[in-house]
Amino acid sequence: MESSSAAALYRASDPDRDDGEAVLSAYRDQIFYRLGIVAVILLLPFVVNAFLKNRLGIAFASLALVVIFAIDVIAIRRGRKPPVAPSLLIVPVALAIGVTITRQGVIGALWAYPAVMLFQFVASRWVANVLNGLLVIMVIVLAYQYLGPSVTVRVFVTLVLTMLFTNIFLGIVLRLQERLRKLGITDALTGVYNRRQMDKEVGEAIERHKRYGADSSLLLVDIDHFKSVNDEVGHAAGDRALREIAALMRRSLRKLDLVFRIGGEEFLILLPDVKRVGAAEAAEKLRREVASGEFLPNRKITVSIGVGEIGPGEARDQWIRRIDQALYAAKDSGRDRVVIANVPAPGSN
């Protein structure tokens, strides 16, 4: 039970699971915070003007929007979630726009355009499109009744185009955001994860072990005599071999396992929910596959691998140091082999 719970937690934190939409969601409160400030500043003069001209319906509808925006802005400023969810703004926004259309005609329809953009940036794309679809239907019904067919067609076409262009723009932003995220956590040459992501993932594995007793193992992989490879065949061929070996590692392991490049020819592999016996089997399989691979013409490439399961109460540096010692033992005993580190006894760290 503990193992399956830990695996579920692990899958939830898998960086490959995130997409641009998930990344953007982390910033939505800040987007809404800034939009809310702008809305309060810009709407207040209209509220005052409506009261002065005794347009009480417009005045109270606009005032309700200002109050809601102000409440949410203050909450976000204090580090809290907005009391009124941005998606619930559809009601006061629709009310304010509807009243303005009935009282001021086409001027009221103009307020639908910033509303469309507001929902697109403060709600998920699916929710935003549903809300905007409902808003457009309401505006078109009122426009047909109060503005006539000709204006209604123009309002409908321009609102739909606004939704379309905003979706296209947001899609580009999400893709760029996701690309930047991946660049920040992956190694540019091999495409596997980098050292920064290794620190995060190994730290989370240790935390899962502390909380749930979840097993994890590490493989420290070093390509044997790789400096001589670069000297003999050149760095371009050496880089190509590194990419192919990294790709082989990912194919050889489970989808759940994570590969990190932590040095020139050194890789660390995290195996969640795997004890050292299973990790040793995975390491031996990888060693054989690399040894039988053809990465360079007329030259065999081998790897030495240190293997170790996380020990009781073990910190990250202690865990990696044990695996590093096993790797050096593999090198000292002739390379092209796997050495398993002993699990330390409780309290020996």
Any descriptors?
single chain; 349 residues; alpha+beta; five-stranded mixed sheet; 14 helices; 66% helix; elongated; disordered N terminus
Characterise the protein shown here:
This protein is α+β, with helices and mostly antiparallel strands. Helix content is 66%, strand content 8%. The chain contains 14 helices and five strands. It has helices spanning 2-12, 20-25, 28-52, 56-77, 90-104, 106-110, 112-122, 125-146, 149-185, 195-212, 226-233, 235-252, 276-292, 316-332, and strands at 216-223, 258-261, 266-272, 303-309, 338-340. Strands 2-3-1-4-5 form a five-stranded mixed sheet, sandwiched between helices. Helix 5 (90-104) packs parallel to helix 8 (125-146) and helix 8 (125-146) runs antiparallel to helix 9 (149-185). The protein is elongated, with a radius of gyration of 30 Å. The two termini are 28 Å apart. Mean pLDDT is 85; it is low at 1-18.
Helix/strand layout:
Blueprint: H1 2-12, H2 20-25, H3 28-52, H4 56-77, H5 90-104, H6 106-110, H7 112-122, H8 125-146, H9 149-185, H10 195-212, E1 216-223, H11 226-233, H12 235-252, E2 258-261, E3 266-272, H13 276-292, E4 303-309, H14 316-332, E5 338-340
Parallel strand pairs: 4-5
Antiparallel strand pairs: 1-3, 1-4, 2-3
Could you tell me how far the N terminus lies from the C terminus, measured between alpha carbons in angstroms?
A: 28 Å
Structural class: alpha+beta
Q: Rounded to an integer, what's the Rg over CA atoms?
A: 30 Å
Q: Widest sheet: strand order?
A: 2-3-1-4-5
Tell me the β content: 5-15%
**Outline:** elongated
Give unreliable regions as ranges: 1-18
Order of helices and strands: HHHHHHHHHHEHHEEHEHE
Give the integer mean of the pLDDT values: 85
